[in-house]
What we know:
This is Phosphatidate cytidylyltransferase. Keywords: Membrane, Transmembrane, Transmembrane helix. It holds the Pfam family CTP_transf_1. 39% of the residues are buried. Helix 7 (147-165) packs antiparallel against helix 8 (173-191). It is globular and about 55 Å long. 72% of the residues lie in helices and 2% in strands. It has helices at 3-10, 22-41, 46-69, 71-81, 96-109, 112-136, 147-165, 173-191, 198-216; strands spanning 140-142, 145-146. The chain has a two-stranded antiparallel sheet with strand order 1-2. It contains 9 helices and 2 strands.
Amino acid sequence: MSTRAENSIEDQSLALRSDLHIARKVWHTVTGLVGLSIYNQLQLSSNEMGKYLLILAVVALALELLRLKVPRINEVFLIFMKPFVRESERNSLTGFPFYALGISLSLLMFEEKIAVLSALFLIFSDPISSLFGILYGKDKIIGNKSLQGAIAGFVVCYSLTFLYGSYFYRPGVDLILFSFIAGVIGSLSELCSVIVDDNLAIPVLSGLGLTLINYIIPIF
C-alpha cells in the first residue's frame, strides 16, 4: 500500500459504533424494505428469492475482500459510502454481506411467512434497538448491549408480530401470547450479535425460534 493511499484512506472520518449514525440506520431499513418490495412485486417464491440473495451475498463478500486488498478501491468505496460505514469497517467487512446472507438463509430454511417476519425483525428492530441503546442505554447486559436497547427491541418485535400476524390470524389471546414470545425471541437474537454479526444472527435465530413456537401456537 502506498503512503499516499494510506493517508487518503485514513483521512476519511467515519462514524463510531457509539455514534447515533442515523444515515446508517435509515440505509439499513430502506435497503430491507426495497428488497421486500422487489420480492413482492416480482412474486418470487421464498426459495427463489433466497437463492438470489445468497448469490448477492457471495458477490458482495467477494467485492468486500477485493476492496480490502486493493487500497485504491477501498479509498473510492469510503468516499461514496462514508455516510453509512463505521470506523470499525474501514479495514474489515461491512454488514451488507451478512445482511444478504442472513435474510437468504431465513428464506431458504423457514416457512415463507416466518422468514418474512424474521426479516422485518432485522429491518426494524436492529436499528431501533441500537438507537435506544445509544440514547438511553445505561444498564449494560452483555458487551455493549443495554437493557434499554433490549426492551426497545422487544417492543418492536412484539408490535411487528402482532400487526403482521393479524393479517393471517384473528387477533386474540393466542396471537398476543405468540407476539409476546416472538418479542422475547427477537430481542434475545439481537443480543446474540455480540458473538455473531447481528445481520446474520437476527433473521436466522428469530426464524428458528418463531418456527418452534409456531408448532405450539400455530399462527402462520
